[in-house]
Amino acid sequence: MITAQFADRLAEDEANREFIQNQVGLSCFVEAGAGSGKTVMLIQRLLTLIIEHGVRIDEIAAITFNEAAAAELTARLRRALIQVCDTGEYTLGNGAPRTFPDAALAKTRATQALEGLPGAALGTLHSFCLRVLKQYPLEAGLPPKVDGVDDLAAYFSPAQHSEAIIETITALFEGNEEAAAAINALPTDITADEFLSQLQFLLGEGVTFQHIQELAEWMDAHWGELDATIAASAFEAPSEDEIRASLHKELRLIRDRAHTSGVSDKLLAFFDDRLAELDAASSLAELKLGKPGNTGGSKPEAKQAKDEYKAFLAQLEAFGLYAGYAATSTIAPVLAALVREAADARCRTGVLEFHDMIYLTQKLVDNDEVRAKLHEQYRVIFVDEFQDTDPAQLDIVTAIARGPHDTPQPGRLFMVGDPKQSIYKFRNADIDTYVAARTSAAARDADHGVKQLSRNFRSSQAVVAAVNELYGQLFDAHAASTNGPAQAHYVPMLPQDATDGRDGAFIVLQDPDAEDLSPAELREREAADVVALIRAAVAGVDPRFVHHSGKHAGEHMHYSDIAIVVPTHNDALRLMQVLDSAAIPWVSEGSGALFATPELNDLFTVLRAIADPADDFTRVAALRTALVGCSDAEIARWAQQDPTATRVVDAEAQLRRLAGEALRVDAASMVRSVVSEFGLAEAYAASGHPDHLPRVETLLALADRFSAATGLGLREFVRWSDAQAETNQGVTEPLLDTGTDAVRFMTIHKSKGREFPMVIAAGMSGHTTGSRAVRAFSREDDTAQFKLKDAQTPDYLTAKAFDDEADANELTRLLYVAMTRAKSVLAIPLQLKKNNPRKKGGPRDYAKTQRGAKLAAVIDDSTQYAPITREELPGFDATAAPAAPNATPGAPAAERFSTNAAALAEATGITQRMGVTAIAHAADQANDAPRHTRLTGTRLRASLDEQVSRAGYPARQITTGLFRDNAGTEFGSAVHDVMEHLPAGGELEQIATTVASLYELPDGAAKEVARVADCFAQSAPYTRSLETESHREVPVIGTVGGTAVNGYIDLLYKDGDSWVIADWKTDVTATPQTVTSYFVQLDIYATFLEEALGQKVTRLELIFAGAEGPQVVVHKRGA
């Protein structure tokens, strides 16, 4: 039944949509709830401007939050323009046509817009800023050529910048006069001597250069906000005598007021004793004054006196922080100035990072002339996802919309956002900025400045009703303190009509006894809930688990309809293991951060031990990994210097040797060396997990890029990798979505803007970050506030209290985003612990640090949403519920080790690992090769004899006549490197010279390398490869007779619907037996490729370099 209030709100929503679409002469701030179709309205307004008002597309700037959103907006606009271009009208979402007054003119304008679309300013704020800076480089203080760093290089740069600053500080510490002069020349009131003195104090208090470097990285990310910090003066503490006199006076006043109010003699005596202690104390730093407890009773006058004394103790404690205030406020201006100086130098190169672009543009639009030109150039600016903006971004768009005027001009700004979905605080998103912009828009136009979109076109009635009921209370329960952070106000969503009575479903699972369980047990219960929900959803027997609308309306769920949305990567990884054990297929959409995947955990533990050999704890952890393979018992004997612990002694020596190598090579070389030495890739292939190999390859590629971009070593790479693992937005492994019917995993941040038929919002039992140090800017004077060990800046506690409250507010918004991704069904496993009652028989509250605590409390108070247990779901089978994986934190250490070691022992210990060459050429193995390699190679080569006989490989004697002075594996490797990098023509000698020097070949060898490579380049296989799809140096891996083998294909190219493998051979001569062995090698490669690609390899080619040209030997497989 539609109520009058609902009808009124629906009419208001429709009127707002009409206004947004057509009233383009007025600016508009749109507050759009989840699933309200804001992108559709944005497209409609763009069409009005372009088609009806003739605004050129190059006069419009549309700014989105990320590249994916920009691509979607561009694609939607292109489709709309194409439709108008073809038909003269546009089909609305409800199927009705939108016509234009002049169809012919509409087609013309749509055509013109399509022509200009590729160069239009539709993209992220960073891309828009870069566009403006390229347009006005000199005005921005930049060189004529300006460009941005690539995404991955932006990840690496903070470590690089901070490292340079630490080098300056280290030089000062070591007495370098140039470093002292550089610091004295900074625009601060702090001298180098003062800075050094306070730095030495901090180091004595346990602060490390690592702490300083992390602070520098944070400052670099905010270098455009450091003016106040650089200009700040150091804190000057009064003398101890002055402090003592002030404290004595304050305590005396408390005592005298207590006496006047008539408190008991016992309480007065307590105050007299404290005064005596204060006067007698030799040092205020050592002074610890007691508390009155029950002394003096609880009458109002006694309570007043005790409250005043409590405030006095807080003041006394603050005096103890003065030394830290002085130290931090002394180093902050210098560090900020060094960061700003480095940022200025970086910007002068013209290669800009993302935050550089924003801060430089913010400064540029202060230029009256530039601002006026941009105002004239861009007649309207659209800003999508405005809730995720920050003060600098707001300054930029409002300045351009303002131009030469005092305020943004009518029709110049269109901003759309949902404050309830502001979840990017870690990226500087500031909901207070959103609220300020909304307030300004309402002040400029009280009638039309702000428009609300409340109609939800995504979710079922059941989901909308639940979110309205629960989150209406959660948002409205927030009572901000006077100076606290803002929180979104909840406006209830208007649901769509149910189709054929299908209302969707909202399900909460909770066990009655969960409130007394341990965290590990709660995670196990949640995992069982997730499995039960998935099985119930795909069983096809429960009418709740169906699509409520759309082309699949009434159909039951499939695995691919279900998304598990979680707060962190670790939540996802834990549940992935559970689904594996339950035989439920899944894919990860960015939730499996590369550096947090279980497959790479052991590798990173070993890398950490190598990078920091002085860390005993990490070294022992590395010894215990399955890669190194030492048991707890062996490590215990080694710790007791038992001579029988030889395995641990050898392993520790190996780690020490690798640590020494790490000091001499870059990060990429070291990571590759460790992966190779421990046979990680081969181990995965042998243990039946070749699907893990792409993660290893991705890691190696990232290490290569890290080294190329930074030149830093393993220690810095490990540190950067750990930072990536800790964030929800770090580097992720690429998703290869092959359309598999599988449950999808993603973090809440990754899910934003997405929708799924069924959402399981998991991870509610996880805990929020505890008491953590924060870095922020003071709301009073804009100075940087931070804490280094126990030393903190003067306003740090105020900044931290604000930040903690902002985090709590954002958690509510984060969970709201998770819930509103659901279209038909929303399910929440809510297994949470409760605290003991404060009073006997009193109520028990949920432990507040749990993410779902507030939501659970609201559900408890609800009469509409009673939780059920997993046993009540259809088809629940307790015997099918998976056991929690051994990797969970609650599992005993010994059991975890045994499980991990056993999993990898099959690959690294029992099964030998070797190259394909060692099999194909087993008879030619040198005696110095490992005995197990020779024996295994011979055994496997013998097992292939029947295949060799049946295949009929060409057994030809090769005599090239191309004699040379250089031979050996180094020469062959050099030629192969040249062929890998050889372009379609030219520069061969230059490449050969470079490669020969890398292999330290003798003088003159480069010419021979070039001669052989040139001969290969004249061969028919090489020529054919240039005309079709081809790949060089392709790694292959697989198993032969249960043994993991690997190798590289020199050249792989397409021949019609099949593939050809070609191999460069630098032999001067080759016997028929050798040629046969080469074909055995290529045939093994072909078998692996066919299994991986599902396509045939029909031809194998050996190319020898001859004196009179290339000699090619061909074998047609299957002929």
Strand content: 5-15%
Alpha carbon gap, first and last residue:
76 Å
Q: Could you tell me the number of beta strands?
A: 28
What ranges have pLDDT less than 50 throughout 5 or more consecutive residues? 728-738, 879-914, 925-936
Secondary-structure-derived class: alpha/beta
Cα gyration radius (Å): 35 Å
Helix content: 40-55%
**Strand line-up of the largest beta sheet:** 5-2-8-9-1-10
Tell me the number of helical segments per DSSP (H or I, 4 or more residues long).
41
Can you summarize the main beta sheet?
6 strands, parallel
Shape: globular
- In round numbers, the mean pLDDT is 84
What can you see in these coordinates?
51% of the residues lie in helices and 12% in strands. The chain has 1119 residues and is of the alpha/beta class. The protein has a 6-stranded parallel sheet with strand order 5-2-8-9-1-10, with helices on both faces. Strand 23 and strand 24 form a beta hairpin. Helix 2 (38-52) packs across helix 3 (67-87) and helix 22 packs across helix 23.
